């Protein structure tokens, strides 16, 4: 009694078998894959029901991969294509939906004269989306609205005496305000108004208060706030917050400090 030897199939053996096999398929064109792309009849596949494929392996397929590499990633083509001199491989892949149902897609690889993959096609064309990586949802940053009442900033905390140039301490004060304005996505217009105390002439105080408002505006713009959304005004000693009757100069200046301020208010989209 003679025993038959079972020969283990190796990759070269499989590739050689593919070389000897014929195409033997009935082609059909598909829309969305190019005018010259023709797909074989799925009924003539060696695995007519299709085979499930590792999607991560599909994502690794790219122009320049060899047939050996493609075989290692995707397996044997499903329509009896050969290897050497063959310029096209076809597959019939199955995929699983979230609800558990499956669907099939045809996948075609074209090779250049050197046997390197050069183009890839799907039927239907929408199947290409199976290799798209899911987009990680970006957590929405909460929008922090500006308060209904104007934000009041002390001029003494922002500027040196009789100056419209922001101090380093003033910039630190404004940095928190800048973050609040940047996150308030509903803001359409910002009004920056500068005020002084009643010491000095009306004309001088109006000019100084406007320059201070402009300095605050320029800081916000440098932080990315659109200059077109910001309006500035200088109102001098108008709209005082406190009334002081002190006659001694130093005490009067200290008492009038709340009047020296910059106020910001915003109008929101309805």
Oligomer state of the chains in this structure: single chain
Helix percentage: 25-40%
Q: Mean of the pLDDT scores? A: 82
Q: Secondary-structure element order, as H and E?
A: HEEEHHEEEEHHEHEHE
Secondary-structure-derived class: alpha+beta
Short description:
This protein has 270 residues and is an alpha+beta fold.
Describe the structure in your own words.
With 270 residues, this protein is of the alpha+beta class. Helix content is 27%, strand content 22%. It contains seven helices and ten strands. Strands 3-4-5-6 form a four-stranded mixed beta sheet, with no helix packed on it. Helix 6 (202-222) links the parallel strand 8 and strand 9 (230-234). The protein is rod-shaped and about 105 Å long.
What key attributes describe this structure?
270 residues; alpha+beta; four-stranded mixed sheet; 27% helix; 22% strand
Q: How would the blueprint of this fold be written?
A:
Elements: H1 11-20, E1 27-29, E2 38-40, E3 51-52, H2 55-60, H3 67-74, E4 88-96, E5 102-111, E6 117-123, E7 151-154, H4 155-158, H5 168-183, E8 187-195, H6 202-222, E9 230-234, H7 249-255, E10 261-268
Parallel strand pairs: 3-4, 8-9
Antiparallel strand pairs: 1-2, 4-5, 5-6, 7-10, 8-10
